[in-house]
Amino acid sequence: MSKTKIGAQAFLYPMPMAVIGAHVKEKPNYLAAAWLTRVNFNPPMIGVALGKVHFTNRGIREHLEFSVNIPDLDGMAAADYVGLVSGMKTDKSWLYKAFYGELTHAPMIENCPLTMECRVTQIVDLPSNEFVIGEIVNAYCDESCLTDGIPDITKIRPFALTMPDNRYWEIGEMAGKAWSVGRKIQKG
Ligand SMILES: Cc1cc2nc3c(=O)[nH]c(=O)nc-3n(C[C@H](O)[C@H](O)[C@H](O)COP(=O)(O)O)c2cc1C
Prior knowledge:
By secondary structure, the protein is mainly beta. The chain has a single domain, classed as Electron Transport, Fmn-binding Protein, Chain A (Pnp Oxidase, Chain A, Roll). It is built from three helices and 14 strands. A seven-stranded antiparallel sheet has the order 3-2-6-9-10-5-4. A hairpin with a 2-residue loop joins β11 (146-147) and β12. The longest helix has 9 residues, at 55-63. The protein is globular. The model has no long low-confidence stretch (mean pLDDT 97).
C-alpha cells in the first residue's frame, strides 16, 4: 500500500465533543473541548488539554474544580458557540442552566444528558497548552439515557469532532463487541 506523508499533526479520528464548565469570577463559564481522554482507571480520572489563553483556565486554577458535559446532537450549536467566543469578552453563563453536585465550583449543564464533576489533581504545563487532570467525583446521566443503569450511546446521541477539517459527526451503528471480536483470531 502506498502511504503519503501528511505532516506532523495529531490525527485522532474522531475526538469526543464535550463542554467544560468552571466558575470564573463567581460565574459559570463554559468552553468547547475535544482534546480530552480518560487517563486513570482507579480512581477514575479525565485529562483535558486546554490552550493557556482561555478564560476557563483561570477558574479551574482558582477553584481546582471543573465539569465535563457531554452534549447531544440538539446541543451542537450551543457547544460550538462556547467554542467560538471567550468569557474574557462575552458572558456565557446565561446560555445553560447549571446544576451542582458535591462540588460548588463545577457547574454542570442541565440539558447535557451526561455530566461529570471533577476535582483537579494535576496540571501539566506544556508549550502551548496545559493538560488539566481531574478526578471524577460523580457522574450524572438523564434517566431516559440509561439502559440497565449504564449510559447508552444510542440514547445520549453524542457527537464527535475531526480536525483539521473541523467537522462534527454523528455516531453510527455498533460495529462489534470490544474485548470479544478478537477472540476468533488464532495464530496460524
Ligand atoms: C469544536 C471545538 C473544539 C474545541 N476544543 C478545544 C480543546 O479541546 N481545548 C481547548 O483549549 N480549546 C478548545 N476549543 C476552543 C475553545 O473552546 C475556545 O477558544 C473558547 O472560546 C474558550 O473560551 P473561554 O476563553 O471562555 O475559556 C474548541 C473549540 C471548538 C469550536
